[in-house]
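Blinded run. Sample ID left blank on purpose so nobody reads anything into the name before looking at the predicted structure. Input follows.
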Amino acid sequence: MNMAGSEDSRRHAQAAQQPSEQKGQQPQTPPVFINPISRAYPLQNSNAWYLNLPDTPHITFFKNTDWSASQLGPLETWGIALRLYAQQVLTNSKPACLYWGKRKVAVYNEAFAPLAGKAHPRLMGAPFEVGFPEIWGQIQVMFDEADRTGLAVNVNEIQLLVERNGFTEETYFTGNFNPVRGESGEIAGYHNSTYEVTRQILSDRRTKMLNSMKTPTGVHQGDLASYVIPFLETNPTDITMSLFYEMDEDSVPNTQLLRLRGKTGVPDGHPSAPDVVNLDSSDGIIPLLRQARRDMITIPVDDNFAGIDWQGSGGPSKSISILPLSGSGRLFGFLVVGANPRRPLDEDHSQFMRDIASKVSSIASAIITVDEAKKRAERLEKELEDSEKQIRFMAQHAAVGLLHSAIDGSMLWANEEYFNLTGHSGNDEVYNRGSFLDVYVDEEQQDAREAWLRLIQGEQSVSTELHLKKLFTPPVGDLEPSCIRSHSFPYIEDGKVKSVMTCMSDISELKWAKKTEARRALAAEEAKKDQEDFIDTVSHEMRNPLSGILMSADMIAKSLTEVLSKKPTLESAIEALESNVSKAKIILTCANHQKRIVDDVLKLSKLEYQLLVIKPSPMRVLETVKSTVEMFESDLAAHSIKTSISAETSVSENHVDWVSCDSSRLTQILTNFLTNAIKFTKGESKRVINISYGAVVSDPRKAFPEQVQWAPTEVKTMNTVRSRVLDVGKQLFLTFTVKDTGIGLNSHEMEKLFSRFEQASAKTSIKHGGSGLGLFISKKLTEKLGGEIGVMSQPGHGSTFVFYVRSERTVPAPSEDSSPDRCKAPPPRSLSNPIDSEFEPEIDLQHMHVLFAEDNPLNQRLLAAQLKSAGCIVQTANNGLEALDKLRESDAWHEKAKNGNRLDIFLTDWEMPVMDGLECARNIRELEKEGKLTRHVEIIATTGNARDEHVETALASGIDAVISKPFHPSDLLKLMRERLSTTDPRLRAARTWSSP
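Blinded prediction complete.
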């Protein structure tokens, strides 16, 4: 940070602390109008509002600034909007500045001060053009654009020359100027958020230059300097001058000559850069080159560099770097480069110099090695040309790879197919000893060496199958190492091995096909086993409750006979009733267990076939968690399990209220967690379940303990419908933790906990039951929601299950009275006939008049009895046609409005003979359009067809609400009262789907 002006800050502080009497006048505070509604807010009421700001050095500096001398006036006179924006900027941890008023007077925070450079501290309270006169022309147009459009103006990677660190520095910034409005609603200022991207810009520029310097392969054109100097010239900002000296050890034996091969910015004949010179000389900069022989050096520019035509726009460099160019213990030469005068000599500069040295050294090594290899190859080919010409022609065009190697491991010759097969570079150190072994993967190079030793020791032939570093692209799947089959034999003269011949062919595709078939067979076997295990598990879980249901039902059926067989008494009758209630509860428990198994299988099938859709909607996290826990109230009370719900501090810190997320999927995950927690806690002496939730803006894993073991993630993106409310805030990650005091898990059990059809151990299924699908489905759902799931546990110390999902801030939906368990509710549909309030009777929700159509006599009798016991007056029909006949006798029929049977709501089964529920509903809606019904008749369908397309068909047929079987009578009654509770009959046409 630029510390200039700190004396001004101290004078401002002293001035602010002087009593008013010493200034010769009493302090006068201008009157400020206080709206009575805002008296509860200190920031708006108090003229000394700034006293509530945090006590930091920078905010103290802000307070002590002589604001009375600025365009904004004393702090006590600032308006509400200015106070709020100033407080927001000052307490922000990111660089930010507020420019207020027509003169754009600056108020900035501590993080912005280093970016202000030499303008700090005088920028505080000063207009922009005074604080930054050098860039006012660039930025003024942005203020004008923001003022004209009312929208933020982005600044992307703008270059600014900032005075800091004692010199003019080349910097780049990204940010925006966002117009903010005052109390009048007009634009009163601009909020500037910014961050520096200098390092990234410089890195990209320098990397681009380095990447443009290509290492030559094969036959190359030009000398070493032609691969270096032209590319240095493309970046004059960072390379302000250059000298390239190449070592010449061949022209004069035992002498190290340096030849100037290239330069930029250095005039011909400059005394610091002789064209040809001995490394031991004292001419020009040669002594400095000797200093840099072992390692790079950076030195200040002195008189030796007078007269240099410095490149770029930053003026003369203040330092130069001398880079030795070497490789494999050999010195190739030196490169002298001038440093960017507008950048510090920091680690980035040093790394840039090292990268240049490494790149140029690599190019030099490649050119020299290839040249030497070519000379050697030309000599050997000339010696063998007469005797091997025809054979070589055949070998060169053979369909197999051929390699001729000397016994020292150097490659004497190889055909083109060898290089194609192995990926060995035909011109990059081809003839180095043992380089042909480098083509094999590291773990098989030892096998290749052992085969080679067997050959040079005289073994007649050796066959191998080895994998190469070169990758094979299979028809499907990921890339994998190529595989070759080779056959090698030694060439022997006078009983001694002289060389080795090798022929090889590519068998990658054959190997891949064999492995694929093996994998498919294994996968099919595992899938079959999984399917059999799943069927066995589900069958076991479905059959077990059936025994309880059959035995309990049998005992209930025989109870009356047993009571009558003895002398009936009141006590024996009550005892029989209590026994029947107990058996009925057993039947309910067993039925609910079977329902959970069926629901798990259905959810799994939807996940497998990508039918499960994520539908975000506005929700409050606490409400979702509480409603989920309330579903388990009876179980928790029955087992004396204590529960608690708590919010992490991150919720308040990030000001989280309404978020956009799929609450139904969250409920499913939490339901699985709570089901397991109750199952494994109810048998313990201490029975406690704690549920906590939080919200973070990034790095959601850090919101949980490090000990959490995360399940492997398969889905990387969310399949969600984006929120319709945009730019309300940044994305959030909602975090959830369910901690219990149950039996706990060991590390082996946790590893397979989230796998399909898996439970912690075989004993788990025997003792506690379950299909092994709940946590697997939870894992899939978290992935669908853009999150992860994990667990941490110890045997005997309970378990903690955690997960997080992606969401975003939002605002409440227009209607907040829909619960998470209710699906979509289309907008009210219009009715063709006006509804006359004269024929709209008052509805008693405790004694509803119900018409119930059901073809199954048993179901009809049971549900009618349940409704009557709840206070309803019920009429029954066996099909849709009978229901229409009874509708004509009701008070909803235009001819019976005054004396017909009372009708509040119509319940109908879907599948019925003669006329089904959908056709009946369509007939009723037609009667409404014809005016033969005096009011809208509420229709609820009960069905086992619970797929989305079935529900859509029902709603399109005129059904108002659908409830899927099996359902509890209390759920049906709740839905009926919800449908009839609205005061506006027209709103009852908004249709819903309920799935208990």
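Unblinding after everyone has recorded impressions. The chain has a mean pLDDT of 80.
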